[in-house]
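Workshop exercise sheet. Pairs work together: one partner reads the sequence aloud, the other fills in the structure field after running the prediction. Swap roles for the next sheet.
Pair: D.N. / O.F.
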Amino acid sequence: RWVLSLECKGSRNFMSALRRAVEVDFKDKDKHKSQGLYLLTTGIPDQETHTISAYVAEACGGFDLQLHVCLFSVTEGTDSSGIITARYASPRETANAFKEIVQAARGRFHWFGEAGIFESDDITSIISEMEKAKNYSQKCAFLVESLKQRS
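Structure field:
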């Protein structure tokens, strides 16, 4: 609810924002069964991926907090206003960095752009469930056919 009162401002210092969210805004974390933190971003963090991953693994490990990332790819190398970002990385490098961070935080990763969805943990899970159901259905059909042939 508090996010609705926020205004865009500040820097691109990802670790500073993450620390504030985890250490200040989740001060009542012990009163809740689980919590999620959603990062909506268009570019790579200014800090190194391994530093962020280590921090989120430690911060999220103490209680049931998951960091989820929604990466929106805009024109390669620029932000939505055409300004080159402070720390440049290709869209694939950016996605890989956030996937590593999300894994450390037991969260989910979603990557999309104007062309559609590039990658999504939720969609991957759904496809996996559908494949399992299809395989199960095929095994059942085979079993039924085997039983019919015996009769």
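Discussion prompt: The chain has one domain: 2-121. What would you look at next?
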